[in-house]
Design a protein that fits this description.
The protein is mostly beta strands. Helix content is about 10%, strand content about 40%. The chain is built from 2 helices and 6 strands. Strands 1, 2, 3, 4, 5 and 6 form a 6-stranded antiparallel sheet that branches. A hairpin with an 8-residue loop joins strand 1 and strand 2. It is globular.
């Protein structure tokens, strides 16, 4: 089954930074390296994408077209890259009201999508 990333969350992916995750290996083995996307997003957005966690989605149009992503949340192999506090921003709205916006840093595994054609 091919699940496409919901268009309503494309802004999260468009603002993400491409990084390489490197997890330590056992002695004598090479470390595991994976491409990923790192994004600092508003807590409200994180709460909206939480149901999509640990599922693989294909990306449509945009910077990462032809790729697939998986939001890391509970995978023990990627514990270092589980969601973390991304700080907060305090500001004043146009009406003069003070507010605070919380952020969280998330990582998405990033894979190439390879299509196979029928024989």
């Amino acid at each position: 089954m091919r699940r496409m990333w919901p268009d309503e969350f494309n802004a999260i992916i468009d603002d993400a930074e491409e990084v390489v995750l490197e997890s330590p290996a056992e002695p004598g083995e090479a470390p595991l390296r994976r491409k990923a996307l790192k994004a600092r997003i508003a807590m409200e957005d994180y709460e909206r994408i939480w149901p999509l966690a640990e599922m693989r989605f294909r990306l449509g149009e945009g910077n990462f077209s032809g790729k697939a992503i998986t939001l890391i949340t509970t995978n023990p192999h990627y514990h270092t890259w589980h969601p973390k506090d991304g700080g907060s921003l305090e500001a004043v709205s146009d009406s003069g009201r003070h507010y605070k916006k919380d952020y969280i840093v998330v990582h998405f595994l990033l894979d190439d999508v390879r299509e196979t054609s029928p024989a």
